[in-house]
């Protein structure tokens, strides 16, 4: 078997779900692969130059490259690329025009040239095949996993993070980047409908505002008892989940949705969207809402606040459900596929 190299451009990027996948799988495979990481001068947009021009020159002849973070060099044909979703092709309005244009140009060429494509859900696989006109045999699904520390949260840890972030009383939680596809405009509208009825409950959002959020006047007016934490240390996140009454994730579009598993692992009930990959991830362990209807989101939140028995049932089902997903298992599946193409 030939050598396998990892395109580690993701190591210079802000960590979202895509980068977390890349870090987790790479860490599990670290002893079996060679990692090529750009220097710090190739952060941001300069990373495109590094990936397309510098990286191919560093690849040994006949070695296989794995690009795990949604893009890869066109000059390396012996390559397996992971595409988490193709939201930038289906919904360019959610991104900057420059970002959307780059991927609209890159992905059709890249998917034709590489040897194989990995993705994280059956939903994403179906969209890649249809939108990019890729042969079904060329695309394999390997799910994301869940980090072990989400399963081990103590009451002491919950008390500490509540105090640290000023989280008093019951709260409904949302964890994500605050970008258009995460649907915060409708979340806020839903919360405005019901928050006067539940004065003992707050809405807590873990995430940082992006430019699109800041430019939206509707999102600038936070409803009563709404807390945006800003940056949260990774070690505090499991306890914030565990302390919540419920976790809401009515996203408009997800290739997978790692936060669903994070909430379930901490024993917190989940309200999520009935669209894209989210039913595939959550199974029978969530309340589903129509993310395009404010009333549906409001009703989902009301149900988890009012129906304690349902909430407890979802917590038990979620604990079982999330154990089906493992970074170790996923890394072994990916290694098997990479090994096939490295021969």
UniProtKB/TrEMBL annotation:
GO terms for molecular function: glycosyltransferase activity. Residues 169-319 form the Glycosyl transferase family domain. Transmembrane segments: none annotated. Residues 75-147 form the Glycosyltransferase subfamily 4-like N-terminal domain. One of its GO terms (biological process) is lipopolysaccharide biosynthetic process. The keyword Repressor does not apply. Keywords: Transferase. InterPro entries: Glyco_trans_1, Glyco_trans_4-like_N. The keyword Transferase applies. It comes from the Bacteria. This is Glycosyl transferase 4-like domain-containing protein.
